[in-house]
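hey so i finally got around to running the thing on that chain from the lab meeting. sorry it took forever, my laptop kept dying and i had to restart like 3 times. anyway pasting the input first so we r on the same page abt which one it is
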Amino acid sequence: MIYRRPLTTRHPILLDKLEFYGIKGKFKTLIKSYLAGRYQKVIINNNNNNNYNNSSKWELIKNGVPQGSVLGSLLFLIYVNGLPKIIPDYNSIVLFADDTSLLVTDSNKKDFNTNINQSLSSLITWFNSNLLTLNFNKTTSLSLERKIIIRCKPKFYMNTKSYLIPLRPNF
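ok and heres what got predicted. didnt touch it at all, straight out
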């Protein structure tokens, strides 16, 4: 099971996590000031001519960490650090930047679907408690099998709705 979701950190949650990891006092205040009061705008086809006809307005950044900085990457990793701990031991989770891969293996189709549903439920609970969402439109699955006997298309059930997770074509 592989899913991609650009994660956006929420400043109050990030500051709470920093405190949990022992970052308090003046250093926490410094990080808070680093995150607060930042503005951004998007410029399209600037071509270095300083004519910003194709740009957005300056907007206050309320969420996220500054991209392209070492500190921003570190703060993001602190934000998602607890994610792998919520997955049962019989499954695995791999984090790379803002992409997350959930690895579920089982030779029994019924157990596989149970395992994937339990893990996805845990992920969604974690996402919700951290004010994030799982984008099912960007969620895909990849089936790797020794023998092709029965192709398994995982279904995820949430709030009485069934989501069929699309299967990627074979390599």
